[in-house]
Specification:
Radius of gyration: 35 Å
CATH class of the largest domain: Alpha Beta
Largest sheet: 5 strands, antiparallel
CATH architecture of the largest domain: 2-Layer Sandwich
Helix content: 40-55%
Number of domains: 2
Number of helices: 3
Number of strands: 5
Structural class: alpha+beta
CATH topology of the largest domain: Alpha-Beta Plaits
CATH superfamily of the largest domain: Ribosomal protein S6/Translation elongation factor EF1B
Shape: elongated
């Protein structure tokens, strides 16, 4: 072999070595990125599992509370009627005045997977203390009931009174449908 052929062979070998290094580097960098991605995903899952483990005591307490306080299944009409009677009774008991023709039944909210909500909108007038007592009687978590979307404004005719429009919601378990 001549010296020119030897140099050409060395150049081809060097070029092949460089090409193989580029291919190997790209292959290794893609594998390294895959490993890094898998590691990050594993760390994320581990963090999530540790968070669930740390919250498991609280969740188990909430599940026990729910098992003790969960209401019996009832049809929507019964729950809505009972809610209206309760709202009217508590309005009278706290000294509030129900505005004429202000009770408005809202459609049942059945967007929840296990619980549905009966809703009634009322407008009342009364003193601040009476309104607070009424809210205290309406907001009872153990009864799955709350006054939501509360809008308060001063009464235009009497400075000692407040006008309030609120939606009272009752969560209930619907009867099973067969």
């Amino acid at each position: 072999m001549s010296s020119r052929e030897k140099k050409l062979l060395i150049y081809f070998a060097a070029a092949g070595f460089i090409v193989l290094n580029f291919i190997g580097f790209n292959f290794l960098s893609s594998k390294k990125m895959e490993v890094q991605k898998a590691r990050n995903q594993a760390v994320s899952e581990l963090d999530k599992a540790e968070m669930f483990r740390s919250n498991s005591a609280q969740v188990s307490e909430e599940m026990e509370w729910l098992a003790q306080h969960e209401p019996e299944p009832k049809p929507y009409q019964e729950v809505q009627t009972a809610l209206q009677q309760l709202v009217d009774r508590e309005i009278n008991a706290t000294g509030l005045t129900l505005k004429p023709a202000s009770e408005k039944f809202l459609p049942a909210n059945d967007s929840g997977t296990h619980y549905h909500r009966a809703q009634i909108q009322v407008s009342v007038t009364g003193t601040n203390e009476a309104l607070i007592r009424w809210f205290d009687r309406m907001n009872i978590p153990e009864a799955f009931r709350a006054a939501t979307q509360i809008r308060v404004s001063p009464n235009r005719e009497d400075d000692t009174k407040i006008d309030c429009t609120a939606i009272v919601e009752q969560w209930f378990v619907p009867p099973p449908s067969y």
